[in-house]
Amino acid sequence: MPDDISNYGIAEPEDVLDPRHYEQVRDPAQSRSLPLWCYTSQRFFNAEMQKLFLPGWSLLDRVEKVPNVGDFFTKNFMNIPLLIVRGDDRKVRVFANTCRHRGALVATGEGNCKGFRCPYHAWTYALDGGLIGAPEFEGPDGKPLIDATNKQEFGLVEMECDTWGGFIFVKFEKNDTKLSDQLGDFGERLKSHQLEEMVCVKEMVFNMDANWKYFVENYSDAYHIPTVHRDSLAQWKGIRSPQPEPQGHYRLSLVVHEGSQLLLPGQQGFPAMPQIDPDKAKGTIFTAVHPNMMMTLGNDGALVFNSEPLSPTKSRLTVSLLFPKSTVARNDFQDIVKNYYHRNDMVVGEDVDIALRQQAGIESPYARAGRLGRTETGINAINNWILDQVVGRA
Length: 394
What we know:
The chain is 22% helix and 25% strand. The chain is an alpha+beta fold. The protein has a 7-stranded antiparallel β-sheet, with no helix packed on it. Helix 5 (212-219) crosses helix 8.
C-alpha cells in the first residue's frame, strides 16, 4: 500500500496510526473529514476496538427487559455473545455467554429461570454466574477436578456493567473508568425527562453494509437535512438555543419550537410531560454520547440510536422509541403512536439509505475525503474525539 501522508482516499498506508495522516483533520483551518481508509481498514477497525470500544463504556440495552429476579435475555453485541440477567439480589449482570468448560452457549433467547444449565455437558451456573456443579467431571484418578478449593475459578466471565436512565451500559476490559466519568453532567442536564421511567414501545434493527461511524457522523450533520430530509425534518423550523459546554464525553443541542420533532410537522402527538423543565418544554434536544449512542428527546418521549461496530464495513443500528409509562397507558395510545412510527420509518430510512450510499461510494479508488463546512463542525468534533482515543491526543 502507498505510504503517502497526503493520501486521503481509500488506499491504506502502512501505519494507519501515524498522527501525520490526520493533520488536516486536526487543523481547524483545514477541517477535513477522516481519511477514507478509516471506514474500510481492518487495522484501523481493530485499533478502534482495542482502544475505544473494549476499554470504554457502550450502550447495551434497556433495564426493563429484565424487571424480575431470574429474568434474562441473550444478544450478540459487537460480535460478542452476551447473557444479561437479574440476580437474586436484584442486581443486573452481564456475562460472556460461553460455558467455562468447552465454550458452548449457556443460554439462548430470553425468559426466566433459577439458574443456567449448559446443554453440552450439563454444567450449571447460578444467577450470579457462579458455578453450581460440573457432573462427573473427574481426572484419571477418579477424583473430581473441581471442588470447594477451586470452584470459584469456573464461574461465568462477568463484564462490568452499570445503569443510567433505565439503560444498561457495558465495559469489556477492566480499568478504573466509571460510567459517571464518561457521562459527566449529562444525566443532570436530562434529569427532568425521567428516562428511567420510560418504556420502549418499538425497536427497529438495521444490519448495515456501512461503517459504524457513518450514522454517528450523520446524526451531527446539519448540512444534509435540506436534501436528505427535505420532506420530513427540513419542514421543522426552530431556533438553536445556546447551551453550556458539556462536562463529559457528549454533545448536546436544543432547538426551540412548538411541538416535538419525534413527529412530522402537523401530526397529532402526545402532550408534553408535566415534569419536564420549562426550558425544554418547547423544543427538541439532539444529543450524542460518545462513541455511538445518540438520542432525540422531545417534550413527549425519546428516540434512541445505537450504532454498533461489527467490521470495518458492517454495523448494526438499533433504534428505540421510548415513552413515559403514563403515556403508554392512555386509551388512545395505539392510535396516536402510529404517527411516531410513520415519522421514524421515514426519517430513519432516509438516514440509513444515505449511510449505505456513503459506504458504497467511498470504496471507489477515485474517492477522496472532503472538506467540512460550517454546518458540519459536529463531524469534525466527533472525528477528533475518535482520534484522541485511537491515535492519541494531538
